[in-house]
Amino acid sequence: MPLFSETVSATILEPLPFVEWQQRPAWPAVSLANTDPVEDLAPHVGRLRLIVLNFPKFSDGRAYSQARLLRGRLGYTGELRATGGVLQDQLPFMLRCGFDSFESDQKGFEEALAKARTLFSVVYQPAEDDRATASLLRLSRRNVHPAV
Amino acid sequence: MAKNLSGDLSVASANRLVDGVVVFLDDAGQWTTRFERAAVARDKRGGEILLERARAEAFGVIDPFLVAVSEDDDGRIEPISLREKIRASGLTFDAIAAEAVRYA
Amino acid sequence: MPDTHFYRYDDYDRTLVGERVEQFRDQVRRRIAGELTEEQFKPLRLTNGLYLQLHAYMLRIAIPYGTLSSRQLRKLADIARKYDRGYGHFTTRQNLQLNWIKLEDAPDALAALAEVDMHAMQTSGNCIRNVTADHYAGAAIDEIEDPRIWCEIVRQWSTLHPEFSFLPRKFKIAITGSPNDRAAVRVHDIGLRLWANEAGDVGFEVIVGGGLGRTPMIGKTLREFLPRDELLAYLEATLRVYNRYGRRDNLYKARIKILVHEIGAEKMREEVEAEYAAIKDGALKLPVETIEAIARQFAPPALPHRAAVVAEVEGLKLEDRDFALWLKSNVAPHRMAGYRIVTASLKPAGAPPGDASAVQMEGVADIADAYSQGEIRVSHEQNLVLPHVAVEDLPAVWRALGRLGFAEANVGKITDIIACPGLDYCALANARSIPVAQRISNHFAGLARQHDIGDLKIKISGCINACGHHHVGHIGILGVDKNGVELYQLSLGGDVDFGKTAIGAILGPAVTADKVVEAVDAMVHTYLDNRGDGERFVDTYRRIGAQPFKERVYAAV
Predict the structure, then answer these.
(1) Contacting partners of chain C (3+ CB pairs under 8 A)
(2) Is the predicted pLDDT of residue B98 greater than 60, yes or no?
């Protein structure tokens, strides 16, 4: 499946399925099923350079939680790749959860990725992309203009 | 009135993509909103062929399927299930709009 | 025009809703051009409120916490007229459904909606749905705190939530701020009940895993008392546990109630509390300034002093029996002396429950401007509510509503029927609901008789999804399809009142459509023959049990 990435070229490392990787945890790339416990990666996140999360269907959203835990809770900073049912209309959600590379068959995916971050200029909830929420922006605006 | 209730008669139906309106495939392979113009398949094999044709013409409609119909002595067809009767002929009560205009 | 006394969009909200409309416009364009398959497009249109029903697309518009300004209601009328057939259906989740929308018009309809700061986001799909509230919020005499403040906070947090937009199944949250729960919090995925503890601190009881549908369940209390500023962290923790562990192998077992049932409330609590402990001091903690800024927007209107006792009202009460009955059933106490809460009944005899035409919507908007601070509420019982009406104005409001056909004195009575759209509209239904409701309504049309029968809630669903809440009707009616014939299963004793929430018990074999009225009539007579002093229908049922009802019903049908 074609691979798309926002930034520099994505890692060419071959990820190991989680069970195999557990036998060779020094390998820097792993692929998780959406039922695999991301918490088990905690001792290794500093070494990992690629984690692939799987969407068996685009409507199965478990990997969004896995992604946020990896980024937010475990502090993983390497490449986080979405594979499986990855459609362009999910990109705004995936980017906010911390994914930064995508395998997708969909036509027009590259163009969609290029503008996915500009579709919504306002966000309501904190996530893994460090964007300031509407609520925070309102607070700082009130502090600048207390009368408003 | 004797009806053909063998269960083998069918027409192809779908909802039109742009507005959701109920449509039926006619003999010319066009989608029509008029139930009485629907092409009737008279047996199981005919139904399969009709459905294939419908799928081939499915660009502007959503998920074509077969509707089982009965036929009376005059050749008038009618869907067998209540759901399809309602799809073919509309609400079974007066919607409020006409009624409520009185209050204008 | 009066100013609104609830949350007003600022430029952030407007920008987001506007961008969402443009995103959907592009998605619709790609669908019509054939770039998206129906399978790919369906979840996109659903999260924008657009269903495909039997005859057409249906647009479900969110009415956050059931609160509308007169300007918004007029716009809904406009949209119904311009893009639909001039009427709409108010639902049990305080939404408005338009039944005949065209896909090609949907982006324009949504853009029109955005002009009055409204949207249809997340009114369908496997995401967090429009949050519902007590329809008397901000006016109720028994209210501890206005629940809409918290509904708005949850609305913002849940809108386009990147992690929770592809949940195992839909997710419904309801919030009440009163001990008399009018939001049915025990039958929601999450129900939140504001209450004050002994120290006088206000917090939430968090109830998880309730719901109707195929497997009705009463929610379990996960937290007796949650400090208010920790609400979003607790919700996020609960949703994360659900998103990770909720079942996805079977559509009918995918709601959170099944997860809670299968792992048990205790284990669910452990999981949620563990996740919550990890995030509670993070970015979701609500700054007091944020809460206060939203709370200020819900500050009650400054209602001028008005007379508590009015001679004209007292006189009319004696003169006109219909007015007197209307005062009893459709008018509730307000927290300010001299004011009342008025319910406009969308259940005139024989009409489809919850339907209103564009003309009627505009009429209600005019009445709200003249007599209710320009504010309207939608109740989960599919009626409209005028929350701030002066006692002095009651006769004028009654007459004006009467001209619209909305002054039927039947709120809470046997003809105040809840019904889903049923097989006449709905692609999921197995049987019709509205014609059944119409027949019952016509049969019991006389007001004196209805008031003699007293409080009796009939709730009708056309399929097991239970949009008509049949499980919690005093009399529940469920349409089923048996070999192409519509049959109706009857149940008794359901209730949504807090502390008494109960799922009704099935009475016996289902009856045919033409026997439903006889069956209901037989139940009513069983009650009338057996009722004790001051007993409502459901009280008598609880005292004497199902048997006498059963005997009489099956002798009659």
Answers:
(1) A, B
(2) no
Does the pTM surpass 0.90? The reply is yes
CATH of the domain at A57: 3.20.20.70
Write b or e for each residue in C475-502: b if 16 or more Cβ atoms lie within 10 A of its Cβ, otherwise e.
bbbbbbbeeeebbbbbbbbbbbebeebb
How far is the first Cα of chain A from the last one, in angstroms, to the nearest whole number? 51
Mutate to test the interface with C, among A39, A62, A80, A99 (most CBs of C within 10 A): A62
Residue C223's SS3 state is strand
Q: Closest Cα of chain B to C530: distance in Å?
A: 36
Question: What is the token pair recorded at C99?
Answer: 């039944």
Residue A36 lies in a domain: yes
User: At A47, is the pLDDT very low, low, confident or very high (cuts 50, 70, 90)?
Assistant: very high
- The ipTM value here is 0.96
Question: Which one of B62, B92, B99 has the shortest CB-CB distance to C432?
Answer: B92
Give the residue on C whose Cα is nearest the Cα of A123.
C16
Number of domains in chain A: 1
Note whether C423 contacts B83, CB cutoff 8 Å: yes
Interchain contact C97–A (C-beta under 8 A):
no
Residues of the domain holding C528: 418-556
Nearest chain A Cα distance for residue C411, angstroms: 38
CA distances from C26 to B18, C106, C107, C122, C198 (A): 14, 12, 9, 18, 54
Per-residue pLDDT tens digits for C410-449: 999 999 999 999 999 999 999 999 999 999 999 999 999 9
Contact C422, C432 (CB under 8 A): yes
Residues of chain C with C-beta less than 8 angstroms from the C-beta of A59: 43, 126, 166
Per-residue pLDDT band for C484 (boundaries 50, 70, 90) equals confident
Q: pLDDT per residue over C228-252, tens digit each?
A: 999 999 999 999 999 999 999 999 9
Domain spans, chain B: 10-103
| CATH number for position C50 | 3.90.480.20
For residue A131, list chain C residues with Cβ-Cβ distance below 8 A.
Answer: none
